[in-house]
Write a structure and sequence with these properties.
single chain, 350 residues, globular, 4-stranded antiparallel beta sheet, Methanol Dehydrogenase, Chain A, mainly beta
Length: 350
């Protein structure tokens, strides 16, 4: 069981690197346990925390920061493993003039508090020199009114140059996310035969119940992902389409029988929008897939997912009309869970 009250640990260069919930990053001597260096990587008072093991790679310690429900701006940072000095920073919400900034509103500063934090340890391909991670939901979670647009790079898989943190590519899994369908599941890297030749894959099982399988050299889908129309709610500025992977989902995407006391809207299907009154949907903000890692068997081409089938109440669109300060709760609504069943697998086919 993953416990968020436990620090996350990485290892390399003679040290054990610990990311703490108070935003500190510590290097402990692997033989003595003595702290060789300690830095306040981000202030916990502003909502930042570290919930995943730092990645040690090529003399660097790469740390990802969480806190997406606390009005923060997501980021990944690389530090020198010898003394902890900062090498580079990548903001998961682009600033003015950067790729993707135009997917945030121009008439407010929502991008400064828009979340897109990172819950897991990045994956690394030493041959390509790239690191990969998926990002969390935009903020506020359940109120899209304050943040019209796709809200990049929230709910996306992102690839960076490991040496300098420069953007290489992204693929957004959920446009203008309203359902907290972020990506806490670790990215898996593997080689697989598709169309008769071996391809370099990066895959992630998302909370929405699909696995997104991409070419890790360029971020293009290895197995088709189609933009499909979804239900609309103008007050939430919903995206007209969502990218739906071809093939099987690993959890159901509709509800057969309404929970007692509730009337189903759109049969409780995924991507049904809401405003004011609560509605019941599948899956919920806990997934789908969540923190528990997935795995891939190259011998059978099976991709294993720790899945949860849960119907969830969503309510939002009325709260958090005003921008908050970093560190304050920033949900824009609420959710609750009803019933679940777990465990699923499916075959990766070329």
């Amino acid at each position: 069981m993953l416990r968020l009250d436990q620090p996350r640990r990485g290892h390399g260069g003679g040290n054990v690197y610990v990311g703490q919930l108070d935003g500190r990053l510590v290097a402990l001597d692997q033989k003595t346990g003595k702290a060789n260096w300690l830095i306040q990587a981000e202030p916990w008072q502003q909502g930042y925390t570290i919930t995943a093991a730092p990645l040690y790679y090529d003399g660097m310690v790469i740390a990802a920061f969480a806190g997406g429900e606390k009005a923060v701006r997501g980021r990944v940072k690389a530090y020198d493993a010898k003394d902890g000095h900062l090498i580079w920073t990548f903001y998961t919400i682009p600033g003015p003039g950067e790729i993707g900034h135009d997917t945030w509103p121009k008439d407010n500063d929502a991008w400064k508090y828009g979340g897109a934090t990172v819950w897991q340890t990045p994956a690394v391909d030493p041959e390509l020199g790239l690191i990969y991670f998926t990002t969390g939901n935009p903020g506020p979670d359940f109120n899209g009114r304050i943040r019209p647009g796709d809200n990049l790079f929230s709910t996306s898989m992102v690839a960076l140059d490991a040496k300098n943190g420069k953007y290489r590519w992204h693929f957004q899994q959920i446009h203008h996310d309203l359902w907290d369908y972020d990506g806490p599941n670790p990215v898996m890297l593997f080689d697989v035969k598709v169309g008769g030749r071996i391809r370099k894959a990066a895959a992630e099982a998302n909370k929405d119940g699909w696995v997104y399988i991409l070419d890790r050299t360029n971020g293009k889908p290895l197995i088709g992902i189609d933009e499909k129309p979804v239900p609309q709610e103008p007050r939430q500025f919903t995206s007209p389409t969502q990218p739906i992977p071809r093939g099987d989902a690993f959890v159901p995407h509709s509800i057969d029988i309404a929970p007692e006391g509730y009337t189903l809207v759109n049969q409780g299907r995924t991507f049904t929008p809401f405003w004011g009154e609560p509605i019941v949907l599948k899956p919920g903000p806990r997934g789908g897939a969540n923190w528990a890692p997935s795995s891939y068997d190259p011998g059978t081409n099976l991709y294993y997912v720790c899945a949860t089938d849960a119907a969830t109440l969503f309510k939002g669109g009325e709260d958090d009309e005003k921008l908050l300060q970093e560190g304050q709760g920033y949900l824009g609504g609420a959710f609750g869970r009803r019933g679940e069943r777990s465990g699923q697998r499916f075959r990766v086919r070329g």
